[in-house]
Amino acid sequence: MINKPILTSFDDPRMKTATILALFFVGLFLIQGVFLPYWPVWLKSQGLSAGEIGILLSLPNWVRVFADPLIAQRADRTGNRKTPMLWLAGIYVVTVLAFPVS
Question: Of 6, 7, 14, 19, most Cβ neighbours within 10 A?
Fold first, then answer.
């Protein structure tokens, strides 16, 4: 009988990466799910018009349209994909934490 070590799913590097990504997206969508429905209401209470609120809500998507291809091209050219992902995740966290709590 051959004694094989018992491997857990976390011993597989792919599973570890998948778990980290899953936790990141849980945090991302949890924050957005709590924050996004109330942000337009708060912006309206601050005196912004419907058009201005629409621009603010669409701004992240427009930034992504132009920034994502540039970041992806650089990551592909250098072969380093981890560093841009860490930088972008850090920028996102800092941005979310920069909003004042009222």
Answer: 19
Each residue's pLDDT tens digit in the chain (102 positions)? Answer: 566 665 566 677 778 888 888 988 898 888 888 888 888 998 999 999 999 999 999 998 899 899 989 988 988 899 888 888 888 888 888 887 887 665
Asked whether residue 71 is domain-assigned, the answer is: yes
* 34 found inside a domain: yes
In this prediction the pTM is 0.58
Identify whether 26 is part of a domain: yes
For residue 6, being part of any structural domain is answered with no
Host domain of residue 60: 13-98
As a 3-state breakdown, the chain gives helix, strand, coil percent values, each rounded to 5, of: 75, 0, 25
Q: CA-to-CA distance for 48 and 41, rounded, in angstroms?
A: 10
DSSP H helix total and E strand total for the chain: 4, 0
| C-alpha pair distances (Å), 15 with each of 3, 9, 82 | 24, 6, 16
